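Subject: for your reference before the review

Hello V.,

The reviewers asked for a structural picture of the protein, and I figured it would be easier to keep everything in one thread rather than splitting it across files. Below is the amino acid sequence we used in the manuscript, unchanged from the supplementary table.
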Amino acid sequence: MRFKLIKVYLIIVVLSFSGIQAQFSSFKTEKFDSLIDKISYLKNKNILSTGEDEFKKKCALDITFEILSNYPLMSNEQKQSLRKLLTIPRRHTFKKLGQFIVFYDTSDINVPSLLTAEYKRLLADTSVKTHQDSMNVINSYVDSTLAIFNAVWEKTVNTLGYQSPPIGFGFDNYVIVISELGSGLYGQTVFAPEPIPGYNPPRYSSYIEIDNDFISVYLPSRGLPGLRVTAAHEFHHAVQLGSYGFRDKDRFFYEITSTWIEDLIYDEVNDYYQYLKNSTGQPRGHFSNPDKSFIKCDGIIEYSRAIWGKFLQEKYSPNVMRKTWEFIRTYGAIEALEYSLIGSNSSMRIAYNEFNHWNYYTSSRSVIGKYFSEAPNYPLIKEKPPIEMVGNIRIYSDSLETFSSMYLPTIYNNNKATDIICNIN
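And here is what came back from the structure prediction:
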């Protein structure tokens, strides 16, 4: 009797496990089909970004990571559908210069246009009266695109020393496509889902799609300033995944780097300010959430932490970021930062502690010649509610996520001091 009970028990376990496998397989199929349907819907709208909030997402790296993470697990039919969706969009014509080829339309919704001083499309302005006038506006935008992207290549590859991205899709030049991307989206780097053979972590070829006028972005960046920072931002995504590798858990650092480097190359634009403070000057991103882990993404905070790149650049050298990407070929982002900082006689713990110290001295607390060079334009970092010391001891209980910090004002005998507490584990 005892033997029979064990036998029945084993049969039940096997059948249950088989049922779980079937349910999991069905779940994966539905998940991948849902992802493909979402990409199809967004591509029909000319965007891969999924943002529906105030920012609409600056670029589409979040969904790119979702695609690249899930693609190896898809069926052949699903892979074929996805590859078709990610092909280069057709446009009326093209123009080449230097390292790039730009595809663009000369009519319909995707036609590019410069903006007037009032941030309206020049093509719709009364001063544009003839077909030749229109073509001059279109060509000016396309020529600006080529000039800006080639300048970004020169700075990124030849001056800063990053490896150039692979050129794929059967072209001899890196492909840029001009599209009407919708409100708020600047651009997107679209990667071929099949990795380039022979690399671990995997690397991918790509093309970049940019907005056709930058009329609906952050107000100070509208028009050509938006094009400039987008070229720097998206080109570095092409460099990151094309020449250094795809690490699914490190998306935060991909966005930190791209947002930092756009300000390094075009320091006068300062598009990243929108992630530090709102229109009334109140903190957002890292300055409103210093207690959120450094490795997290929420659609805003990873962009705001471009200030980490600014800190490394101004405290040490821009080379610290480049060397970190060289180590990312072998290690995850935090470990890569550690090895890179060791080369500057520092460490991740030392640097992260000082970074949090710099973040306190902004706005009205900024000190000319110390800390961030643009600190007067940054908001004050969010502090915890103050606690009052009565006697010599006060017990305070709280928690911190990994690589995060809190700013705790303490009042004693009517004097205030702010303790900066960091979790560097």
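For the response letter, the relevant points are probably these. The mean pLDDT is 90. Strands lie at 93-97, 100-104, 174-179, 187-191, 206-211, 387-388, 404-412, 415-423.

Happy to draft the paragraph if you're swamped.

O.
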